[in-house]
């Protein structure tokens, strides 16, 4: 089935779609957006969006505010309601804002006030904060976990235990992004557990500094694994870690102690990173249903991040890695959007992957995944057989008056930057991050200020989802 594209129109003037439709939008006050997180609070569904650095007018109070965190009520996804904006750090792009946001219910956290809801966010590159968002229209700062950092990024928070894996830049370490682990089971009283990273990043080490961590995903006590992704568009590393050894083992960051919880490490080719590493465990592979061995397998889905405009780097893609034998991970499949399908390298902005959804909501888990693909919008993949993923839908939003020309990276991690052409100054959709909720809605936010788009599947793609699971929410 061909893409639905109005005839004789320039790219970006209208939405382009296949098996996905727009449900609702919000301009997010024209702010450049990074991470969306959806949380059910009572009978309401509340969306939290972390922003890159910039300064915009907040119409709710009439003040010019540094980009921080947007809070919206998306209970009715066709009419999302903007509730509040919490300013972040002054600065532009990666040097300001409050990119990362996670939310836990007090009823889930072991030692929290059971009547409250808590938001974990970064304050630019300086600090990690906890906010009381029980009344999302009136968020209140509860505590600052740690400040005086030289970097932050994509954290992970186990709501059932309170353990948080904070991407930080401890000034004593040799990298601006490593992992600081805290017990936030009582959000008002954070307890530091340990620092963690790759050997060579720790204080006092010598030689080359290994690539910085981008983020991790934990399976909690039951799964006893933490999956860390390092790198963005280069020198990617997937690290599989024993959670119990990580939390209970020796804490001093010696090479021996840093390696002790490591189960496996997969080094990717030099021109690919590991922005998001998403575990997809216990997959019954249809092709092997009659085989005595190997019918059920474990995978990690690695998503690179495109950095340079006009494809002036290696193609950033999605990689499916079989970790059924954890000590011997190996790649079994990949996915990229065919460039010729939309002339994406010259359309403007970045082309290539950035992130995947991270929710394991049963409506989609092990059936469908969604990948933010910058100027190629969001792509929906059938992942029921991870050895042969198949694209079944996509949505590229239309540009609006808010859409800007994406900032130009200062340099290329792959060497001297090649010269850009006039396409570098073209406005383009830059779908930055994607998340889903238990109801089956898909949320995408735009790096180039185009705002929020709430989507749903249609046609054959919709038939793949587990709607029985969604109906229970």
What does this structure look like?
The model has no long low-confidence stretch (mean pLDDT 95). The protein is mostly beta strands and 473 residues long. The protein is built from 5 helices and 32 strands. Helix content is 5%, strand content 41%. It starts with 15 loop residues before the first strand and ends with a helix. The longest helix has 6 residues, at 243-248. A 5-stranded antiparallel sheet has the order 1-29-28-27-26. Strands 3, 4, 7, 8 and 9 form a 5-stranded antiparallel sheet that branches. A hairpin with a 3-residue loop joins strand 11 (117-123) and strand 12. It is globular, with a radius of gyration of 21 Å.
Would you summarize the structure shown here?
With 473 residues, the protein is mainly β. The protein has a domain at 33-360: 7 Propeller (Methylamine Dehydrogenase, Chain H).
Determine the CATH topology of one domain.
Methylamine Dehydrogenase, Chain H
Principal-axis shape equals: globular
Largest sheet: 5 strands, antiparallel
Spatial gap, N to C terminus: 32 Å
User: Cα-atom Rg, whole angstroms?
Assistant: 21 Å
Arithmetic mean of pLDDT? 95
Estimate the strand proportion.
35-45%
Strand order across the largest sheet: 1-29-28-27-26
The number of helical runs is: 5
Helix content: under 10%
CATH architecture of one domain: 7 Propeller
Helix-and-strand structural type: mainly beta
CATH class annotation of one domain: Mainly Beta
- E-strand count: 32
- Provide the low-confidence segments as ranges: none
Protein name: LVIVD repeat-containing protein
């Amino acid at each position: 089935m061909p893409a639905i594209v109005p005839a004789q129109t320039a790219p970006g003037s209208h939405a382009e779609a296949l098996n996905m439709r727009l449900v609702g939008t919000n301009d997010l006050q024209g702010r450049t957006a990074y991470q969306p997180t959806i949380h059910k609070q009572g009978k309401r569904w509340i969306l939290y969006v972390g922003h890159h650095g910039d300064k915009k007018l907040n119409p709710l109070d009439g003040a010019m505010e540094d980009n921080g965190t947007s809070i919206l009520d998306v209970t009715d996804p066709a009419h999302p309601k903007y509730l509040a904006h919490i300013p972040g750090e002054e600065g532009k792009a990666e040097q300001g804002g409050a990119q990362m946001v996670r939310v836990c219910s007090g009823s889930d956290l072991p030692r929290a006030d059971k009547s409250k809801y808590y938001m974990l966010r970064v304050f630019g590159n300086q600090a990690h904060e906890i906010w009381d968002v029980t009344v999302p229209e009136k968020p209140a700062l509860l505590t600052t976990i740690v400040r005086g950092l030289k970097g932050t990024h994509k954290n992970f928070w186990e709501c059932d235990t309170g353990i948080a894996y904070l991407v930080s830049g401890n000034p004593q370490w040799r990298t601006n992004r490593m992992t600081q682990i805290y017990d936030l089971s009582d959000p008002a009283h954070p307890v530091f557990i340990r620092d963690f990273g790759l050997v060579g990043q720790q204080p006092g080490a010598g030689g080359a500094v290994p690539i910085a961590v981008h983020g991790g995903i934990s399976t909690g006590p039951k799964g006893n694994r933490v999956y860390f992704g390092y790198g963005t568009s280069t020198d990617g590393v997937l690290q599989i870690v024993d959670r119990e050894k990580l939390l209970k083992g020796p804490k001093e960051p010696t090479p021996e102690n840093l390696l002790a919880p490591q189960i496996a490490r997969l080094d990717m080719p030099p021109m690919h990173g590991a922005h998001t590493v998403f575990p997809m465990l216990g997959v019954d592979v249809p092709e092997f249903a009659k085989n005595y061995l190997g019918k059920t397998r474990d995978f990690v889905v690695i998503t690179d991040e495109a950095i340079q405009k006009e494809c002036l780097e290696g193609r950033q893609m999605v990689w499916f890695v079989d970790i059924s034998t954890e000590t011997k991970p190996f790649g079994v499949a990949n996915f990229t959007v065919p460039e010729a399908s939309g002339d994406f390298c010259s359309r403007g902005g970045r082309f290539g992957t950035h992130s995947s959804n991270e929710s394991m909501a049963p409506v989609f888990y092990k059936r469908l995944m969604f990948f933010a693909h910058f100027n190629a919008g969001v792509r929906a993949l059938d992942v029921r057989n991870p050895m042969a993923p198949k694209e079944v839908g996509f949505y590229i939003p239309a540009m609006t008056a808010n859409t800007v020309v994406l900032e130009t990276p200062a340099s290329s991690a792959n060497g001297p930057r090649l010269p850009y052409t006039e396409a570098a100054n073209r406005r383009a959709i830059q779908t930055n991050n994607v998340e889903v909720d238990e109801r089956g809605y898909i949320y995408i936010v735009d790096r180039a200020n185009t705002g929020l788009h709430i989507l749903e599947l249609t046609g054959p793609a919709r038939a793949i989802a587990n709607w029985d699971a969604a109906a229970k929410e």
